[in-house]
Amino acid sequence: MSTQNDEEKLELLQGTLDLLILRTLIFGPQHGQGIARAIQETSDEELLVEHGALYPALQRLEERGWISAKWGTSSNNRKARFYTLTAAGHKQLGKETTKWRRLAKAIGRILGSEPVGG
Amino acid sequence: MFGRKRKVDDFCEEIDAHLQFEFERQLGLGLTEEEAWAAARRAFGNVMQAKERFYESGRWLWWDHLRQDVRCGARMLRKSPGFAVIAILTLAIGIGANTALFSVVNGVLLNPLPYAEPDRLVALFTKGAQFDKFSISYPNFLDWSRENHSFSSLAAFRGDTFIMTGMGEPERVDANMVSATFFPLLGVNPMIGRNFEGKEDQLGAARVALITEGLWKRKFGSALDIAGKSIWLDGNLYTITGVIPATFHYQNENYHSKAEVYVPLGQWNNPLFRDRDTGMGMDAVGRLKPGVSFAQANSDMSGVANHLAEVYPDIDKGKGITLVPLKENLVGDIQPFLLMLLATVGFVLLIACVNVANLLLARSTGRNREFAIRNALGASNGRIVRQLLTECVLLALLGGALGTLLAAWGTKAALKLLPEALPRSNEIQLDARVLLFTLGASVLAGILFGLVPAFKSARSDIQGTLRESGRGLTGARHRTQSAFVAMEMALAVVLLVAAGLMIRSIGKIWMVDPGFDPNNVAFFSFSTAQPLGATPDAIRQSYRRIHDAIAAVPGVESVSISGASTPMYTDSELPFWLEGEAKPMSQADMKLALFFAIQPDYLKVMKIPLKRGRFLTPSDTSGSPVVTVIDERFAKQAFGNEDPIGKHIHFAILNQTAEVVGIVGHQNQWGLDSDSTSAIQAQCYFPIEQMPDSLLSAFDRGANGMVRTSYAQTDVAPSLSRSLQTVSSDSVVYDVQSMNGIISDSLATKRFAMSLLAVFAVLAIVLSSIGIYGVISYVVGQRTHEIGVRMALGAERSTVVTMVLRQAGQMAVFGVVAGLLTAAVLGRLMASMLFGVSFYDALTFSTVAAILLGVALLACWIPAHRASRVEPVVALHYE
User: Fold this and answer.
1) Is the ipTM of this complex over 0.85?
2) Is residue A116 part of a domain?
3) Mean pLDDT (chain A, rounded)
4) Does residue A81 belong to the interface with chain B, where contact is any CB pair within 8 Å?
5) Is A59 within 8 Å of B54 when comparing Cβ atoms?
6) pLDDT exceeds cutoff 60 at A4
7) Residue numbers of the domain that contains A62
8) Mean of the pLDDT values across residues B355-374?
9) CATH number of the domain encompassing residue A72
10) For the range A89-96, what are the long-range contacts, defined as Cβ-Cβ under 8 Å and sequence gap of 24 or more?
């Protein structure tokens, strides 16, 4: 099996899914399954994304105007609903990224340096 | 319009696409189809939950629920059509009656008058010592207009009639003489042509007239070039300046609402009209200046009146000016009646609601299982209550729709029946506000009658209900039902008492002796295009000839031409003082007597009893001493215990001193119910023959008359008309009415209120007897088993009947007692509308109690009887 066992994967922290979705869409329009796969693959299969949980997030982002959605055709000629990052989404991504980096740094400082060979 | 932003189907499609992509990816990784599907689903998580979450996040969830509830409700109603029909009809009656009455209240009381800025319009009258609304004399009116600082304009008007000739048969038309300011003040523009100009509103100006759209269509074929054409009125040629649209209506004392012609008031050349001392039946309307309040205008006008009293002390001293907001002047009298009727019709709706609530309660027994199952499947109580209420509101809206149709038809019918009863009746219609009221009433009614049954259903114990298969909690339920029925009975009692008091009042009013015999007596008016004579003596002669011509008509027993007052119809007063008294300073200080100018046969026509002395005779002529006959109240008021015969009385206006030659009985002048409390009671009779020349000129183109026929007259107008034409060829007879008709018209408002109350009371009885019947039937049905056991143990059939009737009797007695108490408290509110009965009239109360208890017993008789025929074996096998 090429995939890691689900139990060993990391669960997403509250609020991070929105950031990851926006980040994924920077490379161009993508459908729901594509986004889920992209998040998992870019994280080297470290993150556990329940695909079903993706949709409320997508809906939320769409309502806020950070992404827009349109039915289109996929590379293998199937109908799919494609999500695109809007200008407002770009701006939001910038803000969220900065916020996340500061948070990660601060937590890192508190936890101290990584033990060698951990 | 109310759809959600994104369809659920669209979302499901997206998820299906997702699963498909994942499935293909897993296939690509080398899994079998089955494994690939499982993996795709595992990666996705709970598909159903995702869909539900999406669904519930929709903004229009409540709308979806509502649609669901409405669909469900409609299905339930279709499934029990009997219940639905009864409930809808009951509500249609309740809501329909309310809609009808509200449309009347709306049209008459609520809607603004149909003029520009109607709130700034004020009706004006002369205020005399005894009357608040006295006719205004024209010179005084002109001074009011000049001296006031509150009105941007004042307009006076008086009704009159003209004989229109030159277009077919001579025809009498109602007319109003109006100030040039009249139409501009009300904001009315002619549809063709122009209003009067100020210079036309003066003595000696060229004769001009405005005609109504009706006359324009009827006589001028809607000719567009009407302005500048001519019309013959009373033998004079008038130039038409314009056409007043048919939408214009105005109602006021001394104004002819049915007028078809308007002429400038200031042109009227009657010398009495220029006499400051004489009101010729003229009133006024004014428009307040912007920023001037009614109170300010009131004090301003009393300043004007005080000034006139200083300048003309012998005439205007003691006279004031009465101001009434125009709308209040028009509808003030009817307001208490309408509000009382609106309150009572609200009771009818309450009864209807209680009835339907009871039906629902009875029905919910059968539905308890349905709700228990829903509850068990996870529906919240709130959701169930909401669904039941939706059903009820749906029911009420259907009832309301049907009720609106009933109301549209009923209002039209009622107004046709009693057109005299209401001012502004032409403005009554089902407009947006009425429909909004109906919608509101329906929704409210639906919630009202649905609430108790809904909560009872939602709160019932699930397990118990499911176990008992739908029979649970009957005790508590029929307690509620019984309370409802008692309430219904109480409401019906209140309505019935109100109707009963009104009926008793009208009965008492009819029993009041009018002082004359109205049977077979007709009133009529006539007028002529040409004066009846060139000189006063010629006019007197014409009146003698008219009398003789009409008296000669077969079937006519006696006839009298009559001027001035007519009992219950028109009134005219003379100021007087007695011989030997100092002449009062001004007319306002003099006492007033009702003035009848008649012919000697008047006594025979009206059959008034002669108490003392003699009545007027044909030998009382212009050459003989001036005489008068007075009524008993005049005699008592002026002379006390002295004998009035031979005494002399000075009369202002006539400027005559007359000797009293006889005393007759009192005629009821002000209406059967209010004559004895009116300010002016004294009455005096003069022969037309002895009218002074100045006054006779006011009679030169016609008068009124009273005729007694030997049989009940159906239509005396043609024979009157024929005989009059032998004296004056261009005369027209109009306004022929039986005296009985005049009397009943004077009671129109009271009869209108009584008829409606009676209708409401009957509805209340019918509805509440249906209610009590329904509940007793239901209770008997529930107790079939118990009754069977009792009978198996040897109970007599009569015992069973008594048992059921006792239960019904308790409800009824409780309801009736509560109703009587409520009626005794609320009755105070209608005390002012009653006549000759007190609002706690024992006879009415006991009759109502008896009627309702009787009806209740009758309604229970059938179910009680059914209970007594229960076969023990069948009953014990029941279930």
Assistant:
1) no
2) no
3) 82
4) yes
5) yes
6) no
7) 6-111
8) 76
9) 1.10.10.10
10) A89/A22, A89/A25, A89/A61, A89/A65, A92/A22, A92/A64, A92/A66, A93/A19, A93/A22, A93/A23, A93/A26, A96/A18, A96/A19, A96/A22
